[in-house]
Structure formats: structure tokens, C-alpha cells
Amino acid sequence: MHIPVIYPTMNTAFSSLYCTKSRFASVATVRGTRRLAPRLRSSPSPLRSPLLARHISTKSTEGIARDRSNNGTRVKYVLFLSTAATLSWFLYAQQQGAVRLDSDKKYSTHPDPLAPKNGIQDAQKKTPKSLDDLDLPIEKAILTTAPNVPPPITRDYPVLLDVDLTTVSKLEQLTNQYKYEKWTFNNSVPGPFIRARVGDVLNLRITNHDESGMPHNIDCHAFVGPGGGSALTTVNEGETKTARFKLPNPGLYIYHCAVGPVGVHIANGMYGLLYVQPEQDLPAVDKEYYVMQSEFYHEPPEADDDGQMSSTVEFSWPHALREAADVVVFNGSEAALTEKPLKASLDDTVRIFFGNGGPNFTSSFHVIGTCFSKVYRDSDVLSPPAQCVQTVSVPAGGSTIVDMKMVVPGTYTIVDHAIFRLEKGAKGFLNVSGEPRPSLYYSAQPPQPCEGCKLHP
Description:
Layout: H1 7-40, H2 50-95, E1 98-100, E2 106-108, E3 138-140, E4 143-144, E5 160-173, E6 179-185, E7 193-197, E8 201-208, E9 219-220, H3 230-233, E10 240-246, E11 251-256, H4 262-267, E12 271-277, E13 287-296, E14 312-313, H5 317-321, E15 327-330, E16 342-345, E17 349-358, E18 363-368, E19 372-376, E20 386-389, E21 391-394, E22 398-405, E23 410-416, E24 427-433
Parallel strand pairs: 3-5, 5-8, 6-14, 7-12, 13-17, 16-24
Antiparallel strand pairs: 1-2, 4-7, 5-6, 8-10, 9-11, 11-12, 13-15, 17-22, 18-21, 18-23, 19-20, 19-22, 23-24
């Protein structure tokens, strides 16, 4: 930090004052000596020659002339000191309260917090308007169900973005063997993909249609404020609430229900992704997909009235506390990305917006048979992306964005490379169509996947 250059000017003034005082002292000493000298001498004797008397008289005249000259010099020095002091004080008053940083920006400060402003005005501070009193265009958000992603936003201005979320529970297939009652946003697990632009104000309306009577809300990692918006959006059965949130930070953010116990609501499927585009969005790609990983914890099935084991399982609190997941899946079920795989063509660039709903595990996200040409780690869309990355670590409640260039046709398997989770359902496929590329991938023998292999269909 550089303080304004005031002190050298003042030092110059004080140095001048010191030197001037020294000169005055010397002049005064000489003058005093010369004044005393005639008094100490005896009166000229009439016996002394006229020449000597004339010589003394001449010296006295010269002394008077010097005194007059010294008086003029004193006036000049006084004028000089007054001017220097006035100039120094003027510079000090002008620069008072300004601190200059290395970036050459000025920031207002004050040497004494109790000192009066003395008419000095700080930079005018604009009082922000309430989000309830905005003059912005209104736009309805395009919401999509995984694995689909809304189209990129092309506008270059902020809007009031309407987003409607509804909470409802539904019995749905979880694995090939079991059904499970999921708690959902907009009837899907994960919840809908929301696409916004930095600077937008999200106008969120949340309605609770959960017939169990369970309250729900939204905690979004993109919302700046206590609880991520949860306290403003808690709704009981049959209730609707509206709240507005400014989106100042670009990136890909998790949203989830945060009604206690929070882990239960997340474990039952209440999570999704909100992408806040930067002013200059990421480079365009051929395909964009939405994939979320999560775990489910359930009790063993119970016997039905006919003695057969039930095909429906229920949430297990003990399993969740032990972090002993029974199921680990992409997009809410074991079959989500196997029965309906992602698709691309040869030479396509594929982008996956990947989130980890948790509630407990960190994902080692990996696509077998390719590497990520670009990785926006932790969904940092402002820094340069990492390149040629094989596996990305994504914590619970975190996200990432990966790009892949598909240069060889075939089926690519999406996994969590904590590989035993494959046996719990963490598997998906990306099918790439096109002509073979023997210049990159070749053998004289035909491919022969191993029997019962879950990685190579």
C-alpha cells in the first residue's frame, strides 16, 4: 500500500525552516558582534588620525547597510516559509483520506474515525433496491428432466426468471429388483435442470403437494444468504411460497431440500442442478447432458400378506447413519442411463453437467474409453479448464463440468471409479455412432466382451 507523497513536501518545508533559522542565527550573531564592537571600543581619540576615524565611520555605515540587507533577507525567508507551509497544508488537505494501492485505485479512508467530514464527501453509495421492486424483463425458465439440458441463453441482459417447483412423493422403480417411494421436485429424481444467467433474479415459487404432510423447501448453493433460501421457502402440505434471489456468481450449483433431518430428504431424492451462465458462456459443443449421482439406503424387503417378499423397500435410518449405501445410481435409478443411454455421433464434443447429490459419498467420476478434454473443476467457469483429465473427484453437494471429444465409435461406460459401486447400480452408457477408426483403435481379432460383464454391453 502506498501512502500519498505528502511527507517529502513537508520535510522540505521543515528543512527549509531549519536552514533558515540557522542562517538567521548566524546573521544575528554577526550583527550582534558588529553592534557590540563600537560600544566596547573607546571613543576615538582626537590624537588618532582622521583616516582612522574615517575608516571606523565607513565600517559603521557598511554595518547599517548589511542590517538593512539582512532585514530584507529575513522578509524573503518568512515569505518563502509561509508559502511552503501553505502549499504543504493544501496538498495534505487535498489528499487526506486517500489511500493508493498497487493497482492505482483510490479508496476512501479517514485518519480518525471520530473526525468530522469537514465537507469532504465520500463516493456516493447507491442503496440497492429490494428484489420486490425491480424493473426487469420477466422470463419463464425452461426446465428439463435429466438427462436433458435447456438450450444456452443468448441474451446479454438480466431478467426476472420465473421458476416453479412442486414437491410430490411417488413410488418408482429404483433397481431392477426393488421399488422405492421417492420424494421429488417436479415429479423427477433428480429435480429439473435450471438454466440462468449471471445477474438474473430467480423468482422461485415452490408448492408442496406431498400428501404425507412432510414440509419441504429449497437450499440452493447459488443463493447468497442464510440457509441458501431454505427459511424463505419452507412450505407445508398444500402451501405455496415465493421468494427472489439474485444470482451474482456464475457456475453449476446443487439445490436440495433442507428440512430436517436434511439427510433424509436428500437421500430420498430431493436434489437437482442450477447452472448460472457467465456473461461469456463456455464454448459451444454438439451435445449437452445432465447427470447426477446419489445413494439410496433401504431396509430389507418385508413379507407380503401372501408370504412373498415385497418388491418395495423403505428408507433405512441405520444404514444412512453408517453410510452403508444399498444403492448408488445415476439420475435416480439403476436403469436411467442403461436402458436410455446418452447418444452422440463421431467427432461430436459432448459436455456433461455432473452433480453429486450424495448424501454421503464422494464420486470418482469417470467415462471408460476416453478422457475429459476439458474439466471445469468444481464448476469454476471463470478459470481456464484443466485438460486431458481421466477421473474427476466430486464431493457430496458438489459438481463439475466435463467435455469429451468422441473420436472412436462405440459404447462408453459411465462409472464411479470407486468401482465396487458398479455392483450397486452406478453405471450408465454413452453410445457413439459412426464408422470405425482403425487409425486410432485396431485389432485383427473382433472384440469379445467378457461374459456377464457390466462394463461392456
